[in-house]
Write a structure and sequence with these properties.
alpha/beta; Rossmann fold; 6-stranded mixed sheet; 27 helices; globular
Amino acid sequence: MTRFNQRSVRPAVHSPVTTTGERTITHEGATGHLRDARSELFLLAVSNFVGQDAFYEKGGDRDDRYTRLVRKLAVEDPAWTVGLLGWLRGEGNMRTAALVGAAEFVKARLDAAAAGNLVPDVGAENANGGGWNRQAIAAVLQRADEPGEMLGYWTSKYGRKLPKPVKRGIADAVQRLYNERALLKYDTDSKGYRFGDVLNLVHASPDPDKPWQGYLFQHALDRRHGNADEIPEPLKMLRRRAEVSAWPVEDRRKMLDSHDLAPTFEAAGMTWEALAGWLQGPMDKAAWEAIIPAMGLMALARNLRNFDEAGVSDTVAAQICARFADPEQVAKSRMFPFRWWAAYKHAPSLRWGHALEQALGHSLANVPRLKGSTLILVDRSPSMFPGYGFSTPNSSDITLAEQAAVFGSALALRAEKPTLVEFGGESKQLTVPRGGSVLKLIEQYGTIDGTDIPTAVKKHWFAHDRIVIVTDEQTRPGWLPSNMHRYGGMQETAINDLVPKATSVYMWNMAGYKPGAMPSGTAGRHTFGGLTDHAFRLVPLLEAGRDADWPWIQPAA
């Protein structure tokens, strides 16, 4: 009898987020599945805005769990953890979690070294863990205000004495990040650690390939100590800003109305916030139109309401829309996909709509066009609206439910044969128009009390080729009324009871809670996480019969 050599046999593939086989319960009482430490840390890291409460977990508890996991893996698996932290700050776009993680990574390794519990990794670090530690610090500092942020975190928690790896990692970042524009934007009196303070503490040397940087460092030190009488000649942007700042206040708005000051503002490194302070009054049409060319995409997307209220011209609006429609600029902005939904949601005018749709599409470039039939389940339960119940505040805050709707809608509109369902305790299928708009499709979603993944699967799965579930995984047990007569009561039903192993199930974890709703890592059951589209790249890889690894590890050719 043929048992194994059958046409239906597929190669076993593995994905990185892996369960251990140990059981627990979800926050809603169903059987939960525990993940190994790396998997738990990854899912938490990509969803943890430090200090913020989640529906089932206080912010402090989440931060403590994150710190414990980082400190554990810093000692046990430093190479993997450094890879995570660098990716988290880069492609993962999680700034604060990466910074906190790097600091705790270093502290854990220094503590282990002091206790004699650190095994040196020959070729990667010295006996005190300096190599990995310095790499971790430098890897997560990607913006010029972050060296000061790192010092603020470290000294507030561990005191003013800075270990050498912290100093050297920060010095590496300072050499890479400090320039004139950064000094103008971030070196302000509101900061506890000014650029001069950072330079004093870490003793960074100027980059030999940046002959102007020595002048910049000295000027930052002089202005910190109040003796920056004259700006060095090589610092042309700072000198231009000083000239513009010297204009009489009463003449500034007249100059703005009568001259094209956009090139001047660009040369002076003016941001829109700096311009508002320079005018010492409201930002009107002329002010916005002068500064818009120098604004980044994030600032543009967040100010659409202000542009409309000020009456920015259609010509300038078209220039903004052209930038939103540029895939290279969208990629460079590293904006989360849901930020484009937020911009659309809060913009008064329809003139931005098509460009925002294009920008959202560019930010979701990694969402695959899945062949065959796909069941897509999007969680709309109360826990996906953390802090807000069922009402979303009229602000830029976008709930997990809306973020899930962004991913689910994009996947549905690109899939060959999609079945798109919103679920909670009950569920409802949504209409997916061919060639439709992700932004308009998101507007169809509602809110549904309860969370019951198995029942939603049972109701809507009809031999689809795959299932994608976008959720926080905290499901209720799921009940099959047909089993009540056999068991004298209700029986819990798991996803694996309902879906054959030949059908892949992809769980998209949005919240990073500890319990998972199903086993994962192999046997057609895979869990991803994050607030960007990057993990979607794993789906075609797995369906092509290839193993998927962590996103910072390049697949073998």
